[in-house]
Design goal:
By secondary structure, the protein is of the alpha+beta class. The chain contains 4 helices and 13 strands.
């Protein structure tokens, strides 16, 4: 079996409540250094978690957005790099606080847990019409990205999706160009009929 030494991590910043997704690879651990997982919000950039290779295992430390404590977990390398999805919970609340694995599986897991994050993510109301529309917009964006239909004018197809103030923010991982998609009927209709999205156009 061919092992792909690349993982996607998703986590919530305990400082500003932004949901961040980041790709990590084996090169991030060269020289046995720790790999910091930072908040992607401009002006925040706080360290939300870190992964370090210690005693031939990966130590994953997460600054918990639920209870405020730091929680540590360990994973054997074969599990860390091979399992499609790894999730780790806050031991106080039992809620998943970090997702690691294949990008599609991480995206699906985060979407399934959105309701659990109702008190964490900003401006979220699960019973509102706006939240239902946000779900539909999120589904459209994920479908387009999974099919390789979201890219940037710089040529990159590595795009991060963030939820900020009830808006979806698409960020190019290469050049950091941004496209904000507000939650409204016009944007939902646009996405339902869109064949592709190009950030920067």
């Amino acid at each position: 079996m061919i092992v792909k030494y690349e993982r996607t991590a998703a986590y919530i910043c305990p400082f500003c409540s932004n949901l961040t997704k980041k790709k990590i690879s084996a090169f991030d651990f060269s020289g046995r250094v720790k790999a910091p997982l930072l908040c992607s919000t401009t002006g925040c950039r706080e360290e939300c978690a870190r992964i370090a290779l210690k005693n031939e295992k990966y130590k994953i430390t997460v600054e918990c957005p639920i209870c405020g404590d730091a929680h540590s977990f360990t994973a054997a390398p074969v599990k860390f790099w091979n399992k499609r999805l790894l999730t780790y919970k806050c031991p106080v609340s039992g809620i998943d606080i970090i997702f690691l694995g294949e990008e599609k599986d991480v995206d699906a897991a985060v979407a399934e847990h959105t309701v659990e994050y109702a008190d964490i993510l900003p401006d979220y109301d699960d019973n509102s019409a706006e939240s239902e529309m946000l779900y539909e917009i999120l589904d459209c964006v994920h479908e387009l990205r999974d099919n390789g239909k979201i890219s940037c004018v710089c040529g990159s197809e590595s795009i991060s999706v963030q939820l900020i103030n009830s808006c979806l923010v698409l960020v190019c991982d290469r050049c950091e160009r941004v496209r904000v998609i507000e939650t409204n009927e016009h944007n939902l209709a646009m996405l339902l009929n869109a064949e592709a999205i190009v950030i920067g156009n």
